[in-house]
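Fig. S4 source data, part A: sequence.
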Amino acid sequence: MSGLEQLAVLAAGLAAGVLTSTIGVASLLSFPVLVAVGLPPVVANVSNTVGLAPGGLSGSFGYRSELREHPRVALVVLLTCAAGSVLGTALLLGLPADVFETVVPFLILGTCLLVGVQPTISRLLRRGQEERAARHHLSPVTTFFATLVGVYGGYFGAGSGVMMVAVLGFGTDLELRVVNGLKTLAVGAGNVVASMVFIAVADVAWSAVVLLAAGSLVGGYAGARVGRRLPPTLFRVLVVVAGVSAAATMLA
């Protein structure tokens, strides 16, 4: 990579770390950058997962007070996403590369749709909450869908945070700041487990990983600090635009 390309990857890691702790669509930003600097899609995805793992860890540390409020829920989210991520990595490594290249643009577009409709989903979820007891635990159905999010996170990961927010929004009545913390924990757990598998058996572009990791480590913690106070509208708009542009480029 040239000096400018290295700077672009470092900046992508920083911004992706912030997104990990806020909206949860970090890979929509960092993955296209890795492809743009010349990495094959599968290698880019593997390197992206390994490079963003520190961001999930630092972001989870930034949300530590929120996670302590519901430790049992945090433990279930941690375990389900870690277990699901193992299956997701197996699917990524076991399927032919051309399958991955074919489905990636549609995964990105689907994730962008989730980002765009998230406010509407949130408003619908708030209706009628006064008529039932607050749900501060994960039902078997919610746990199942949390595990599926973990599988998706191990396979590709872009938008897995948004998916986890939707799952927790449908399945619990936890405050949004707590949901954001749990979402960041889920992304971090999935990335760490997938990273261990990828490092052992997959092709990793370490030069890109180091730059991504350095940026995401700082960005993850910073994102947790601002995530409690700043509305996600600007992040959502930028991510949708970036994701649609990336998907359109890959389909062209």
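Fig. S4 source data, part B ends here. The chain has a mean pLDDT of 84.
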